[in-house]
Amino acid sequence: MADKTESIKLVKELSRKEMTFAIAPVEAGRKMLLGSADFHVYEVDFGAEKPEPRSLGQHESYVTGLAVTNGVAISSSYDGTLIWWNLATSQKIRTVNAHGKWVRKVVASPDGKTIASVGDDMIGRIWDAETGKKRHELVGHAVTTPTHYPSMLFTCAFSPDSKHLATADKLGQIRVWDVASGKTVATLEAPIMYTWDPVQRRHSIGGIRALAFSPDGTKLAAGGIGKIGNIDHLEGMARVEVFDWKTGKHAIELSNDSNKGIIERLIFHPSGTKLLALGGANDGFVQVIDLNAKNVPLSEKLTTRPYDATYDPASKLLTVSGHNKVADYALTW
Fold it and tell me: pLDDT per residue over 239-256, tens digit each?
């Protein structure tokens, strides 16, 4: 019988008083940016023996997303703004009133030229990374649920060639946009990731919380939670669906019985044959999904309930930001 090739081991932890919703690597070394529930953007060197976070500045609410490109960081917040930061000088460059409601995510294109953000005004926006000028408004996601409650636009991701942007909402709809024109080129549906309770709570929950394109750009993975029995306790199985996004066909649908909660982050292996999924309910977990075998060869608990993560293929370190902790893990997959 062949040895198991997947493993994960805790290397280092940084305790935090608050939740850390976002993490992004600075372009060189082991420096990280952290987006915090105390409204601050921090820089921290995880290569140090005792990492000490240093604040660059703050928003007026939770910091929910971070993107880094060409020596500049862009942070998003529930205060509706995006802030550009000069990483060399630690100075604020500009503040943009980006969305009319909470901003849920900000990402940078792989070519470094473009920034995208999504918010609960149900509009995606594409920005020039250097100037902060708005290029396109991406309108098409439903503003309300079928039961006439406000919907939410949770996440977005660029394709590896920077030509397409995927956005995803509470109802389980994904739209893929042409970055140059701002036009929709594909619409995908994952309705199992949305639950409406018409009896006990008259409340809905779920939605797609994570997106990732495969390294060759042909597949699009979506993460969330399956149908929920008790919406007060997230009693639903973590769920991942992978699409051949140009045809709309499912490549894989996977609900892992050993993990309950919401998938918050998806990361493709550089080979494109495996997918890393992180999430949780009260506790946190990480799982490796083998896309060829369509199984989960690794499923492990984490020391924190994760909200974001970044993986460095060179060092094989997975850095996870979450509830009261940021942690480094040695990952073999």
Answer: 999 999 999 999 899 886
